[in-house]
Amino acid sequence: MPTLKEQGRKKVISRLFDAIAGAIAGSGVRIKAIGVGCPGPLDSKKGIVLSPPNLPDWRRVPLKKIIEKKFRLPVAVENDANCAGLGEAMNGAGRKASSMVLLTLGTGIGSAIVLNGKLWTGKGGFASELGHVSIDLNGPKCGCGNKGCIEMYASATAVERRRKAAGKMTAEDIYKAAEKGDKVSRRIVDETAVYLGAAVANIINALDPEVIVLAGGMAKAGEKYFAKIRKAAKERALKESFKGVRIVPAELGEDAGIIGAAWRAKKQ
Amino acid sequence: MPTLKEQGRKKVISRLFDAIAGAIAGSGVRIKAIGVGCPGPLDSKKGIVLSPPNLPDWRRVPLKKIIEKKFRLPVAVENDANCAGLGEAMNGAGRKASSMVLLTLGTGIGSAIVLNGKLWTGKGGFASELGHVSIDLNGPKCGCGNKGCIEMYASATAVERRRKAAGKMTAEDIYKAAEKGDKVSRRIVDETAVYLGAAVANIINALDPEVIVLAGGMAKAGEKYFAKIRKAAKERALKESFKGVRIVPAELGEDAGIIGAAWRAKKQ
After folding, report:
1. Which of residues 146-175 of B touch A (CB under 8 A)?
2. Nearest to A197 by CA among A92, A103, A94
3. Ordered alpha helix ranges (H), B126-182
4. Which residue of chain B is at minimal alpha-carbon distance from A97?
């Protein structure tokens, strides 16, 4: 069901209760825990939603406690990109891998780091903000305060921004136009593959992961685009670390976050 | 004892045997395992030294097996930066921390990632090459093939290279001259602090670690220099992740690698 955030926090939470109650009633099994994926930043250890830009009246909401009190079940709250990453790691493109990094290329770039089957969340639960790892310390200023964040180059928003001079198009339109031979679109797509390749090479050199999963609209841009990203990454990554790494599209689509939230609850 | 690599691999290994035998004889305790720190790249899982640039006649040397056969004890072989990182994490600047990242600023930049008391070594043992994480995708070409690696900006070699126009100086001389008010040296040191701040901010955004330890000659450059690095990192890192992170000098000096190699053997 849609969030309908404009109705305010209380109504959103009330609708969330209805959704959970409905899911429990319809499940036909005994429910042992509840997993919730939620936009960050949030304190996943305490289950407190801090200040998501897209939920303006949510400020330090103790969502874990609120849902635990209502349903008398253990609750895990995790940021949505981490849930998607855990879902792909357990049941999607990263299954059977010992380590996986996910990048979700949407309005921004979300990401998750899964090491030995567990999310790496850092000291405060804020780790894996790979969209705000800079690929150019003197690059354009990002909303986060940093400069040259990969989000400024390879998110759907960034791709659309670069195409704007030649008329408004969505990122998906741009990928399609590039496929059909539109030169401006093709140049933008090629540039984006190089930016992503540079970011992926950094991830490979830093973490030497088994699988890097790319999700979001561009994941549908097809094998040709992935080949370009792999080529750019190979040119930049250390030979030993690049060897054997898989750079692949996500497999679970919109279900990744739901499946990952369930795993997060189970693992907690 | 010095390596004396010019005498060739066999003599180096024979002297290594002597050193181990001497250490065992002099220890007065029963030795249960041997830990070896060694320049990379190496396959730390199998204990094979692959092709260290500084040991030109070492090619795929199964050092773990060689030492195990000689001493009939379990042997762990790990790259020297990882050993130093593990040493600092267990007994030095990172003790009591749940996660620590080490950067050693020397001829190159070595690094280690320690998560929950364990080295993160990646799928093939090549992880944590943070010296080859790029801070400028269009930056100067690095020996590794990548462009704009932080090693090109903040290693001792890079600091010395930037000072060359105004006469040859070692990195330590440059730090000292900057302290004494030499303007060119001060500019170079300030620039380097910004480069390091950018690299540190990337590490913070990616991993949200509890402690970042800086080792090598520059670690002696003093609190003023660390304050500049912290300031540059704070300007770039995400607020939530920067909060509570400690950016501190290494504590164990040259012993870090020895202590870490012992821990590596114990943990194996």
Report:
1. 146-148
2. A103
3. 151-154, 156-163, 171-179
4. B123
Residue A171: which of A161, A180, A181 has the closest Cα?
A161
CB contacts of B145 in chain A (<8 Å) are: 235-236, 238-239
State whether B201 and A144 contact (CB < 8 Å). Answer: no
Structural domain includes residue A38: yes
- Nearest Cα to Cα of residue A49 among A19, A86, A5: A5
Vertex B253: Cα angle to B4 and B81 (nearest 5): 65
Which pLDDT value is given to residue B165? 65
- Closest CB from A98, A129, A132 relative to B123: A98
* E-strand stretches of B50-151: 75-79, 99-105, 109-115, 118-119
For chain B, positions 10-49, list CB contacts with chain A under 8 A: 41
DSSP state of A108: S
Per the structure, the count of domains in chain B is 2
What is the CB-side half-sphere exposure of residue A232 using CA atoms within 13 A?
21
- Domain carrying residue A45: 5-81+257-267
B237: which chain A residues are within 8 Å (Cβ-Cβ)? 146
pLDDT in tens, B222-263: 888 999 999 999 999 999 999 999 999 999 998 999 999 999
Least confident of A105-109, B88-92, B138-142: A105-109
| Crossing angle of helices B223-236 and B183-207, rounded to 10° | 50
Segment B35-57 shows an average pLDDT of 89
**In this structure, are B124 and B246 located in the same domain?**
yes
Mean pLDDT of chain B: 93
Judgement on whether residues A107 and A42 belong to the same structural domain of the protein: no
Q: Do both A50 and A119 map to the same domain?
A: no
Domain assignment of residue A21, yes or no: yes
